[in-house]
Design goal:
The complex is a heterodimer of chains A (294) and B (327). Chain A is mostly helical and 294 residues long. Helix content of chain A is 73%, strand content 3%. Chain A has a two-stranded antiparallel ribbon. The longest helix of chain A has 31 residues. Chain A is globular, with a radius of gyration of 19 Å. Chain A starts with a helix and ends in a 17-residue tail after the last helix. In chain B, 76% of the residues lie in helices and 1% in strands. A two-stranded antiparallel sheet of chain B has the order 1-2. In chain B, helix 2 packs antiparallel against helix 10 and helix 8 crosses helix 10. The N and C termini of chain B lie far apart (45 Å). Classes of the chains: A mainly alpha (294), B mainly alpha (327). The interface between A and B is large, with 45 and 49 residues.
Chain lengths: 294, 327
């Protein structure tokens, strides 16, 4: 039983971080109809920034994560404004190819800069843990989880309560109408992509303190984002949070009782099944139902 | 005077040169390179059927490639079958799986379809990894190619050059045939507006599944040949996302939904990729990614379409091409 509870705790804690990776992915997909295959590479970039600042300047990885988030917001804004906006009206596989190309560029640049070796961000407190009975809850994972949930909820509030959040939502619902209302859609798109990249960067910094990472980890995070975004419903941020927790649990339980790669097979099977049976996601209705092209 | 015979004469002449080239022109290594170019022509044409003509962007074509390869490998290694017996078996598996998978998944549109196909391909890879009794799992499996256990003598680089060339010609002719048939018009109609196509009396479900089956057959045949060529195959290689994505990149940059676009795309990109690999060993993938990005930005409608428009209008509108799809 202890083992089961332990796996559940770890799964939930990890799931919160996966949700932070996927929430931006889901937002970009829901608002702009763009599947960002480079999402995982943003995560890894965030991890490397935090790692570099930690080893060179001794900066706390969470503060480093903040730096990473700001840097990735800028980079994400520029990528959307300069590159993706130029082909946004092309058939959808063009944006898939574009972000795939970006992913190749970023991952291989990281390999050139930092080699393909596995890294980890060491902190003084990450290995300490809280004991509840026989179940261990490491502080590092707990703090990372808390931060991830706070940021995800923060994004929900941001989208619900601010003018720019409203602009993003309305652009996602009907781009032509948003333009007619005087919104600068190019800026809104770029801003949305920037937010997604920033969340991924922060998630990367936190993940770097609890897992090892290397440039090749990027693909895994992208695939997990797929599963979570589809589970939760596109553009639905509560859905992304729930989807992240579900995926974290499934992976953790699966890791306990099944051989390593069988877990992935199950994750993909779930993904395809959900798509076939209920493409709008498991939770509620899709955030953005109407989609008019302009 | 009609000059419609000109392209055919050109194609025939080109094929004649390609047929004689191994004997008179090409080194073994060059034949190997060209063999892989032809293989990607097949894969790009396979994607062209479902993605280009029908407008359903599959991102999981590697599932057919892998299934075809493993059908051949398992039959040759476990059942001692002759390679040429396994080829139709691989095609049948490709077609059958395309139909099975297509019935539920072709109901999804756009990104949902793309993600579902990707999920199937990734899931299939994990499944193959977890069947070590049949497939050797992660350690891979080896086809008996030499010695007493070999069921078929190994064709070598020149042999595979001709097999891949033949398959590329068959694939291109198949796409040409579809493009000029009632079936091809049905697919294009689906790609433009599926509801309107259905209203016009097209059985869209049947047409989509048939197109996907053609994709499955072409791609699994390429996989069967590739598996025999490699002798030892691994799930991570046979079901690699790269296989799918390269096919998409080639079809799209050549010109998706055209007959010769995928040929142009496969030849130019595969050569470029080989050249980068040989000359920029350490950062060829980095440069290749950059080239994909730039190509998508500059030629979003593909080389063939761009050239045709430039020819018809007597105008080299590169800037218009860049601006064609911007927000």
């Amino acid at each position: 039983v202890t083992q089961f509870v332990q796996a559940t705790v770890y799964g939930l804690l990890e799931g919160g971080l996966l949700a932070l990776v996927a929430v931006g992915f889901s937002l970009v997909w829901g608002v702009m109809n763009i599947v960002n295959l480079a999402q995982g590479s943003f995560v890894v970039v965030g991890a490397y920034i935090a790692w570099k600042l930690n080893t060179e300047a001794g900066l706390d990885p969470y503060l480093g994560g903040l730096v990473a988030a700001v840097a990735l917001f800028g980079a994400g804004y520029a990528v959307q404004r300069l590159l993706i906006n130029q082909v946004v009206n092309a058939p959808i596989w063009m944006t898939l190819l574009l972000t795939f190309g970006l992913d190749l560029v970023i991952v291989n640049l990281l390999i050139l800069l930092f080699t393909a070796d596995f890294r980890a961000i060491n902190t003084s407190w990450a290995s300490d843990s809280l004991g509840i009975g026989d179940v261990r809850v490491p502080y590092g994972r707990l703090a990372g989880f808390a931060l991830a949930v706070v940021m995800t909820v923060g994004l929900v509030l941001f989208m619900a309560r601010t003018r720019i959040g409203l602009a993003i939502r309305s652009t996602g619902m009907d781009r032509a109408a948003a333009r007619l209302m005087g919104m600068n859609v190019r800026h809104v798109y770029a801003f949305t992509f920037g937010i997604a990249a920033a969340m991924a960067g922060m998630a990367g910094a936190i993940l770097g303190t609890i897992n090892t990472f290397s440039p090749s980890a990027a693909a895994g995070y992208t695939l997990q984002s797929f599963v979570i975004a589809v589970l939760g419903g596109l553009g639905n941020m509560w859905g992304a949070l729930a989807g992240g927790l579900v995926l974290g649990l499934v992976q953790s339980w699966g890791g306990q009782y099944l051989s390593g790669t069988m877990v992935n097979a199950i994750a993909f099977a779930v993904l395809v099944l959900v798509l076939i049976v209920r493409p709008s996601g498991l939770i509620g209705r899709p955030y953005y139902e109407a989609r008019a092209e302009a | 005077v009609s000059k419609r015979w000109l392209p055919w004469a050109g194609a025939a002449l080109g094929l004649l040169v390609l047929a004689l080239a191994p004997t008179y022109l090409l080194l073994e290594s060059e034949q190997r390179t060209l063999g892989s170019v032809f293989m990607f022509v097949v894969l790009a044409q396979g994607w062209n059927m479902i993605g280009g003509f029908t407008g359903y962007p599959s991102f999981g074509n590697a599932v057919f490639f892998g299934l075809g390869g493993y059908t051949t490998a398992v039959l040759m290694a476990k059942a001692g079958a002759n390679f040429w017996v396994t080829v139709p078996a691989a095609a049948a598996v490709g077609a059958g799986f395309a139909v099975l998978m297509g019935i539920p998944i072709l109901r999804l549109r756009g990104h949902y379809f793309a993600v579902a196909t990707l999920g199937v391909a990734e899931g299939m890879r994990e499944g193959v990894i977890n069947l070590p009794g049949l497939t050797g799992g992660n350690k891979g499996m080896t086809i008996p190619a030499v010695g007493a256990e070999a069921t078929t003598s190994y064709p070598g680089n020149t042999g595979f050059y001709f097999y891949f060339l033949g398959l590329a010609v068959i694939a291109t002719l198949a796409v040409w045939g579809v493009a000029h048939s009632r079936f091809g018009y049905a697919l294009r109609a689906i790609s433009q507006d599926e509801d309107a196509a259905a209203a016009a009396g097209i059985n869209t479900t049947r047409a989509k599944i048939a197109a996907f089956a053609v994709t499955g057959v072409l791609t699994s045949l390429a996989g069967a040949l590739f598996a025999f060529q490699q002798v030892t195959i691994y799930p991570t290689r046979m079901f690699a996302v790269d296989i799918t994505v390269l096919a998409v990149v080639m079809a799209v940059l050549g010109g998706s939904g055209t007959v010769f676009g995928p040929v142009v795309g496969a030849v130019s990109l595969q050569y470029l990729s080989e050249w980068l690999r040989n000359n920029l060993t350490d950062y060829h993938t980095f440069v290749f990614g950059g080239i994909i990005v730039i190509a998508v930005m500059i030629l979003p409608m593909g080389i063939v379409n761009f050239t045709r428009d430039a020819w018809r209008e007597r105008r080299f509108g590169l800037l218009d091409s860049v601006r064609a799809y911007r927000l």
